[in-house]
Amino acid sequence: MADMLSDADIAELRREWILDVWDAHGEWGALGSAKVAAPASAGADTLGLSGLGTGTLRSGTNFVVISGGVTIPLTVKADAAITAGAATVTVAPRLPRAVTTNDPARVEPDREGPVARVFGERENRPMFSAVDIQALAMRAEERWGQVIRTSLDPRRFRFMAIAYFAIVAQQRSAKYEQAVSQMDAQDGGRGHYDRLESMRVKYETALSRQATGPRFIEVYI
C-alpha cells in the first residue's frame, strides 16, 4: 500500500505535532538567506557567511554549501558570534573545493529526540523514523478514518490522530521514560509526562467530539 504521508507531512508532524526536538537554528536567518560572504580556496578551514540572523553559530551545527551544483557538507567546529548578519566560522572538514561569493549555505535542522540526546551517537535519530510515522498514520486511519475524512479540516485531524498514537507510544516506552528522566532529573520527568497526558486527552476528546453523520437515539421500552 502506498504511503499515506508525504515527506512534507512528516516534516510538519515532527515540527508541530510530535513532541520531539526540532531545532531549525533561527540564528542562520530566514530560509535561503545565508550565503558565502567571500571566496574561499580548496583546503581552507574557515569560511565567511552573510545573510545570518542574530546570536551565535553553535559548534557542532551541520550545514551545507552549494557551489557549482555540488553540495558540500560541513560542520561548525567552534562557536562563532554573528555581527550585523555575518560571521566567520571554522569548519570541518577543510573545504574540498573552492567556493565563491553568494554560494548558498543551508543549515541542517537537528531532529534529535530525548532518546538520541541521552544515549548518544549510537542512536542519533528521532524516536520515530519516517516508517514509524507512516505506521502511526495507518493506525490513525483505522481508528478515526471516517472522522478525519468528514471533518472540516481533514489534514489537521489526521495529524492530531497521529500525534495521539505517538504520545501513547512514548508513554509505553521504557527507553523513552529513561531518557526523559535523565534529561529532567529534578522531577524525574513527571512534568513532561503530565504534559504528554494532557495533550493525549485533548486530542482524543477533540477526535471523539468530531462525530459526523446521522445520530441514533436508543429507545428502551
In short:
The chain has 221 residues and is of the alpha+beta class. It has helices spanning 7-17, 114-119, 130-150, 154-172, 174-183, 190-209; strands at residues 35-36, 46-50, 56-57, 62-67, 70-76, 80-81, 87-92, 105-107.
Count of the domains = 2
Rg, rounded, reads: 22 Å
Strand content: 5-15%
Helix content: 25-40%
Number of strands: 8
Terminal Cα span: 47 Å
Secondary structure class reads alpha+beta
Explained architecture:
This protein has 221 residues and is an alpha+beta fold. It contains 6 helices and 8 strands; from the N terminus they run αββββββββααααα. The protein has 2 domains: 7-22 and 113-209, no CATH class; 26-107, Beta Barrel (Elongation Factor Tu (Ef-tu), domain 3), CATH 2.40.30.290. The protein has helices at 7-17, 114-119, 130-150, 154-172, 174-183, 190-209, and strands at residues 35-36, 46-50, 56-57, 62-67, 70-76, 80-81, 87-92, 105-107. A 6-stranded antiparallel beta sheet has the order 1-2-7-5-4-8, with no helix packed on it. Strands 3-6 form a two-stranded antiparallel sheet. Helix 3 (130-150) packs across helix 4 and helix 4 runs antiparallel to helix 6. It is elongated. The chain starts with 6 loop residues before the first helix and ends in a 12-residue tail after the last helix.
List the helices and strands and how they pair.
Elements: H1 7-17, E1 35-36, E2 46-50, E3 56-57, E4 62-67, E5 70-76, E6 80-81, E7 87-92, E8 105-107, H2 114-119, H3 130-150, H4 154-172, H5 174-183, H6 190-209
Antiparallel strand pairs: 1-2, 2-7, 3-6, 4-5, 4-8, 5-7
Helix pairs in contact: 3-4, 4-6
